[in-house]
Amino acid sequence: MAIRLIVGLGNPGPEYEQTRHNAGFWLVDNLANGIARCNLVRETRFNALAARAAINGQDIWLLEPQTFMNRSGLSVGALARFYKIAVEEVLVVHDELDLSPGAARLKKGGSSGGHNGLKDITAALGAQDYWRLRIGIGHPRTLGSQQPVADYVLHRPRKEEQPLLDDAIAKSIDIIPMLCDGKFDAATMRLHTAQ
């Protein structure tokens, strides 16, 4: 088993482009412009921006749903069914409140942790055994802010947080070729010790 579909979560539109909730889009954009060397194009049948790429000689799909976050499953489920991609071959990249800015963690399965994008993807795929690449954005409470979570994720990172997020994304992209080769344990160890 190896990763065949990499999904970046975010909200479409220029007003959301630079917000914390779009960390998944940022990673997929960097991946497409870097090692995947491809251009994401609008795929109306999947309601997404998508690209087929080769990473380490493996055929991979990159996907950015163009629904809003809480309807991400529509795009993910449609592409996975069409190309017969198993749940265990899906990697979803998303922002994570429970990790500090600059941290990144890889895990397989588990609950949605209140993340509406993950809830919808789990419902669309009929299982939660897909891989998740969690990009830390911090929590307003741990950062000493009274800002509501919904408001916090839809704002830009603070100036001092952006380089930390960029670094977490770069470290995460470094392990993508390993995931495309099915080397999950090695990828996890490298990412978790690179922090």
UniProtKB/TrEMBL annotation:
Residues involved in tRNA binding: Y16, F68, N70, N116
Pfam families from the UniProt entry: Pept_tRNA_hydro (PF01195)
User: Which InterPro entries does the annotation name?
Assistant: Pept_tRNA_hydro, Pept_tRNA_hydro_CS, Pept_tRNA_hydro_sf
Its predominant location is: cytoplasm
Q: What class of enzyme is it?
A: hydrolase
Q: Where are the transmembrane segments?
A: none
EC number annotated for this UniProt entry: 3.1.1.29
The annotated active site, in chain numbering, is H21 (proton acceptor)
What catalytic reaction does the record list?
A: an N-acyl-L-alpha-aminoacyl-tRNA + H2O = an N-acyl-L-amino acid + a tRNA + H(+)
**Keyword terms, alphabetized:** Cytoplasm, Hydrolase, RNA-binding, tRNA-binding
Q: Does Lipoprotein count among this protein's keywords?
A: no
- The question of whether Heme is a record keyword is answered with no
Q: Where is this site: Discriminates between blocked and unblocked aminoacyl-tRNA?
A: N11
Record's subcellular location: Cytoplasm
GO molecular function: any one?
hydrolase activity
Subunit relationships = Monomer.
Entry-linked HAMAP family? Pept_tRNA_hydro_bact (MF_00083)
Q: Which family does it belong to?
A: Belongs to the PTH family.
Function field: Hydrolyzes ribosome-free peptidyl-tRNAs (with 1 or more amino acids incorporated), which drop off the ribosome during protein synthesis, or as a result of ribosome stalling. Catalyzes the release of premature peptidyl moieties from peptidyl-tRNA molecules trapped in stalled 50S ribosomal subunits, and thus maintains levels of free tRNAs and 50S ribosomes.
What is the official name of this protein in its record? Peptidyl-tRNA hydrolase
- Provide the species name: Actimicrobium antarcticum
